[in-house]
Amino acid sequence: MTELQNRIDFVFMFDVQDGNPNGDPDAGNLPRVDAETGMGLVTDVCLKRKVRNYVQVAKQCAEGYDIFIKEKAVLNTLIDKAHETESVQNAGDKKKTEAARAVMCQTYYDVRAFGAVMSTGKNAGQVRGPIQLTFARSVDPIFASEHSITRMAVATEQEAEKQKGDNRTMGRKATIPYGLYVCHGFVSASLARQTGFSQEDLDLFFDALKNMFDIDRSAARGLMSAQKLIVFRHSSVLGNAPANKLFDLVKVTKATDAVARSFGDYTVTIARDQLPAGVTVEELI
User: Fold this and answer.
1) What's the CA gap between 67 and 110, in Å, rounded?
2) 222, 273 in Cβ contact below 8 A?
3) 3-state DSSP call for residue 167?
4) Is residue 151 part of a domain?
5) Domain assignment of residue 251, given as a range
6) 118: Cβ–Cβ under 8 A, 6 or more apart, which residues?
7) Domain count, the chain
8) Which of 26, 157, 186, 285 has a CA that sits 20 to 30 A from residue 5's CA?
9) Is residue 200 situated within a structural domain?
10) pLDDT tens-digit profile of 179-201?
11) What would you report as the CA-atom Rg of the chain, rounded to the nearest whole angstrom?
């Protein structure tokens, strides 16, 4: 495995058409929105879930690529399992937590990528992950619509009797016509060294960003697509420029006066001539 030598900052853009990219359970599962500006929001947790799902499918939980936070997992059982390994059993009492932490990082991709709190059972410590993501925010305000839908069936015989055989069930579905979302991310080479997160792990993460929507299709999410992945690579571990200054070099502007309904209605530019010394930029999408 190749050790990361450079700090990395990136901009990830994706869009949704006729779908709900991230429902808010506190608002009847309507699309998340900034109440003050009307801009749509997608949480970092939502995006990390899709990355985890992609890695799980792509690697089939192979050695070193299992997923800690996955559907129906019992986390304390997994932590206890780490404590049962030979390396932890042979560690002194004062070093068992550190040894268990190392096992968890080696075993679970998402632990060494995103970090985890693993002190809820047998203590495996706490890990600060080298990859951090912001909430994704839409470029323009979103307009959520609720649609009535009909299912030509009922769930129980009692419902069928009440409807005298009509057997219809009404429901609601919330979507937005179109939204382009922008997320910002950060990769710390120094934290990567602490968790064992490698260059190969980073390549897998970027593959996940590019392809994760294609294995996450559902009727509720409409058409979601990765559109841009712009990576700023520093020449040093600590970095050569503030991340916010690099993000300011990326501009998203409307290419039409009409209401945006596709990615083609926007223009994305990068002020490459303003790149600080020691920073390069690459478009992976």
Assistant:
1) 6
2) no
3) coil
4) no
5) 8-146+173-283
6) 75, 79, 100, 101, 104, 111, 124, 125, 126, 127
7) 1
8) 285
9) yes
10) 999 999 999 999 999 999 999 99
11) 22
